[in-house]
Amino acid sequence: MDDDGRALPAPAVGERPPIYALPEHADAHTAVDYTLSARTQARIADGVPANTRRAYARQWATFTTWCAESGRVALPATAHTLAEYTSQLCEAGQAPASIEQAIAAVRTMHRLAGHTGRPATESARLALRAYKRQRAEAGGRGQREAPPITIDALRAMVSVCDLATMIGRRDRLLLVLGLALMGRRSELVALMREDVREVADGLEVTIRTSKTDKDSTGETIAIPRGSHPLTDPVAAWRDWLTVLDQAGHTSGRLLRRINRHGTLGPSLGADAVNTIVRDLAVRAGVPSAETITAHSLRAGGATVAYAAGVPVAVIAKHGRWAPASPVVLRYIRAVDRWRDNAMRNVGL
């Protein structure tokens, strides 16, 4: 409903809800006052990270289709509708994390359409909680996390890179930067050559925007020189810089595709980063290599830093996590469960 009690139009199945302003002087406003140009709508949409936008659009399309087939109203949906939809997702055996995302997407679309706080989620979350417990009792596990890459694993992976080739040099830099930056895939593939600068103490890497930098103010991360020739960030950077120079790429994307003819192409895609990291882990014989992803580099950076005594706040800032991020705390607990183990010195 708008301020005059008129029902706001619901979007078509799968359509993103429009953004409605709250009128202050309803009698003076006309339709023009509530109109957004296509360019403005696009900018508003782009204010949400692309991955999140795609995921929410997919979840919203699935929800609205289900509502249409079930004879239910998608916008505004009732708490009963959301709870029933959640239960249907549980019956379909979807992962709890996917169901959490579906609930978040429905709530976000309602907020964008002027229905802040709707639909209520208590019943839906109780149904999801019961589903999680049933999965656990049946032998299922919670959300699986990519295992962290340790320094030993990183060196093993770099050692299988053929540093006499362009691909080997690129992959080495990808691995070393990924761990040293605690970098997200999106941050790594977005790096420009000019974002990395060698200084006396190592490298300074500018991250222009990130998941937690919603206003894209940017941040410069310092990476010290390494002590091992295989994994020294400066050496890896210099080797790859030579390749870029020889190919005439004095600006533009840092990490690039390389075709079978040895020609440098455009930027690597995020999925390609995952594939490269996993393939190198398999070739290096890293334990549980089939579960390794690009996120293992980010997790590994935080894990090895904490094991080396780096304070949590410093790790969170370096990795561009929110100060009280539960993700960082999970990495820390993984170290503490062995370092501060109650059974370590009891004489078993």
CATH class value of the largest domain? Mainly Alpha
Give the rounded overall mean pLDDT. Answer: 87
End-to-end C-alpha gap: 67 Å
User: How large is the count of helical segments?
Assistant: 13
Lateral strand order in the biggest sheet: 1-2-3
CATH architecture grouping of the largest domain: Orthogonal Bundle
Q: Could you name the ranges where pLDDT drops below 50 across 5 or more consecutive residues?
A: 1-10
- What class would the helix/strand composition place it in? mainly alpha
Instruction: Give a count of the beta strands, DSSP E runs of length 2 or more.
Output: 5
Provide the succession of SSEs.
Answer: HHHHHHHHEEEHEEHHHH
CATH superfamily of the largest domain: Intergrase catalytic core
In which range does the helix fraction lie?
Answer: 40-55%
What's the domain count? 2
Domain Core-binding (CB): 34-114
InterPro entries: CB, DNA_brk_join_enz, Integrase-like_cat_sf, Integrase_catalytic, Integrase_recombinase_N, Integrase_SAM-like_N, Phage_Integrase-like_Recomb
Keywords: DNA integration, DNA recombination, DNA-binding
Protein name: Integrase
